[in-house]
Write a structure and sequence with these properties.
Elements (H helix, E strand, L loop, with lengths): L4 H16 L5 H9 L20 E4 L2 E3 L2 H11 L6 E5 L5 H8 L3 E6 L2 H14 L4 E5 L12 E6 L8 H5 L1 E11 L4 E8 L5 E9 L12
Bound molecules: S-adenosyl-L-homocysteine (SAH).
S-adenosyl-L-homocysteine (SAH) binds next to strand 2, helix 4 and strand 4.
């Protein structure tokens, strides 16, 4: 894999666009400027890797749009050493951004084909601090709970109770909820039984589905 001057130049312009669209957390912008997004796309889309768009990654899934990655990451208010559960590994790009920001990332994917492909890619790139699991994310990842942050990168119909229960007190869940269009929600666990809910902008994600899809 090669990161040319041309790629770096296109990446810089993408970062400027994200800044213009209101992304202001410099740590996020620095991670996105450092990480070559074209490594996470099939060769056929490499030329387009630095457009602010979602692209197919196989198995009928997409890599999230850079703006969406930056937006969800902003809402998570990442701190170094945060223990994060990501649901929907997909291409691995979002997981790698979180890891580059110093978080300890646990990421789950329900499709075996994507799980295997992405696990191998993340090992090859030596990103570190990411553990991949083939799981149904509607159940979370109970044996590693609780988490400081949970991020869902697929469009959910509702908020799975298991995810709320796997948050630390003070922890936050960022999840897009809705059928056709999803509203971004951030749920903060105030105490054992109390949760605060905040609503943000609308997005479009691939669906959050139950069960595992084997090869
Ligand atoms: N974070 C990814 C976005 C991938 S799209 C990236 O940066 O590329 C969302 C992913 O969520 C898809 O790969 C889809 O298969 C996965 N997904 C959907 N429902 C899921 C579930 N219940 N558990 C785990 N993964 C799920």
């Amino acid at each position: 894999m090669e990161d040319s001057y041309r790629h770096k130049g296109m990446r810089k312009r993408l970062i400027e666009k994200l800044r213009e669209r209101g992304i202001s957390d410099e740590r996020i912008l620095a991670a996105m400027e450092a990480l070559p997004r074209h490594y996470f796309l099939d060769k056929a889309f490499e030329e387009h890797a630095y457009e602010d768009k979602a692209f197919p990654i196989g198995s009928e899934q997409t890599i999230s749009q850079p703006y969406t990655v930056a937006y969800q990451t902003s809402l998570l208010e990442i701190k170094k050493r945060d223990k994060i559960l990501e649901i929907g590994t997909g291409s691995g790009y979002q997981a790698a951004i979180l890891a580059l920001m110093g978080a300890r990332v646990y990421t789950v994917e329900r499709q075996e084909a994507l799980f295997q492909k992405t696990k191998a890619l993340l090992e090859e790139l030596k990103v570190g601090n990411i553990r991949c699991f083939l799981r149904d994310g509607t159940k979370g990842l109970a044996e590693y709970a609780p988490f400081d942050k949970i991020l869902v990168t697929a469009g959910a119909i509702g908020i799975p109770e298991a995810l709320l229960q796997q948050l630390k007190i003070g922890g936050m869940l960022v999840i897009p909820v809705g059928e056709d269009v999803q509203k971004m929600y951030r749920i903060t666990r105030i105490s054992e039984k109390e949760f605060k809910q905040e609503a943000f902008d609308d997005f479009r994600f691939v669906p959050f589905l139950e069960g595992i899809k084997k090869l």
